[in-house]
Design a protein that fits this description.
Layout lengths: L14 E4 L4 E4 L5 E3 L66 H19 L4 H17 L7 H15 L6 H6 L5 H14 L10 H10 L4 H16 L8 H15 L6 H8 L3 H12 L2 H4 L17
Helix pairs in contact: 1-2, 1-3, 2-3, 3-5, 6-7, 6-8, 7-8, 8-9, 8-10
Length: 308
Amino acid sequence: MSSKVACKFHPDATLIEDYRAGDQICSECGLVVGDRVIDVGSEWRTFSSESGGEDKSRVGGAENTLLGSSDLSTIIGPGTGGASFSADGKAMYNNRPTVSSSDRTLMNAFRTISNMSDRINLPRTIIDRANNLFKMVSDGKNLKGRANDAIAAACLYIACRQEGVPRTFKEIVAVSTISKKEIGRCFKLILKAHDTSVDLITTGDFMSRFCGTLSLARDVQKAATCIAKKAVDLDIVPGRSPISVAAAAIYMASQASDDKRTQREIADIAGVADVTIRQSYKLLLTRATELFPQDFKFTTPIENLPQN
């Protein structure tokens, strides 16, 4: 049986939709074929569409499936008539809290994650993953007693690692109000309690971002990437963090080119101390001839590179 709506006298005629009246009218004879047309336009007039394009606003906010109430609630407006008040003048109808405490906790955490992500320009996919991770932690109740802001920051750090765009602990700390130690504790507890895994970070995870922020030339970035990779493969920097190795490699590559950067400039971008870069750089310098790519054009020869 066909569900197509058509005029019984002119089955092939085009139907005209009158959204104001909610009718579908036959263009040939004027017969009202349907009288329950759903208006998909806005419920009220806004001025956001005057700049061009259709206004997509609808009643209520977007549904959040992570919340138990799905954001659906009813608010009773303030009464104005005599029937709205009792004999002693008290309101007959009051709004009871429509958001549970657990949902309120989630909403606050989601807002915290969104604010932190906006400050370091993280995409929506990472925010969604961090939100889902916080929801899982909240439902598991394994981190009771820990500050929700610390859990939210740890979830954002894990989400960055899982999405392949890792951020350093210092970058997360810089946009949160929680100490690095507390975020690190929550990070370890989440991995242990929820069997969540993250890939190990490598020097390549940070190289392009650090070099881009420093406005280094492409050949310098290529050389720094090669230096860091060979240093790890040859086990020249055992026990050193990938961030400090990447920073030292950038320093070495820039000093060998005409696009030089100081240890202080690199340290500010990488979030490590000058002395940390210096220690890793000294290890790289002992075997510098093995680390540079063969096609690298030296402005400063290896023997003339800074010794510390």
